[in-house]
Amino acid sequence: MKKIKFRYNKYRPDVLYILVILGVGLGLLAFFGFLKITGIDKGPEYGPVYFRQHPMHAVYLIFALIPIFMLVPTWFAKKIWSHEDLEGHIDLYENYALLNWREQEIQINKGDLVIKIPKPQPFWYETYILKLPDRKITLVSSVRENKEKKRGKRSLNIAIRALSDYKGSKK
User: Fold this and answer.
1) What is the model's pTM?
2) CATH hierarchy code of domain 2-10+85-168
3) C-beta separation of 140 from 6 below 8 A
């Protein structure tokens, strides 16, 4: 028996996508709220005195705030999504492997496993989809571990490489 420990992200990529969409939506709402509060949305003659005297500054402000109100919530979404890691391990035996993941123990018989790597992959995390006859498991590499190790191999990559010996033949 061989035991391989690995770290993985607590959340799936779907959670990141939802957080980014919500963040950008809230950022745009905040942007339009800012335009309403300042009166810039009504036109140059109804806006604040400063913007009536300097109308180009209003234009600069509007176009500068759009990326800020969109990128800052996106950055927060990434930080929330990648802040928590979990640990798991794989016990490799001759004819099967035991995957201990999210406090569950899943038996993977030799030949029953299909490993899919979605394309394209982001540069700051990797996703693996393990397909078994009765379930589908999505594992996302640890973003924190990637920062700690810099260019080294991530523990999830090593575990998936060892688990690839249990893959079935493509049909």
Assistant:
1) 0.78
2) 2.30.29
3) no
Taking the domains of the chain in order of start, what are their residue ranges? 2-10+85-168, 13-82
For residue 109, the cross-strand partners are 96
Task: Find out whether 106 and 132 touch, Cβ atoms under 8 Å.
Answer: yes
**Burial (CB count <10 Å: 0-12, 13-18, 19+), residue 6:** buried
Give the three-class secondary structure for 115.
strand
DSSP 83-108: S-EEEEEEEE-SSEEEEEETTEEEEE
pLDDT-wise least confident of 38-47, 63-72, 83-92, 106-115: 38-47
Whole-angstrom distance, CA of residue 140 vs CA of residue 127: 4
Q: What is the pLDDT of residue 150?
A: 64
Tens of pLDDT along 43-86?
A: 767 778 888 888 888 889 889 999 999 999 999 999 999 888 99
Q: Where are the beta strands (DSSP E) in 19-153?
A: 85-92, 96-101, 104-109, 114-116, 127-131, 136-140
Please tell me what DSSP assigns to residue 64.
H
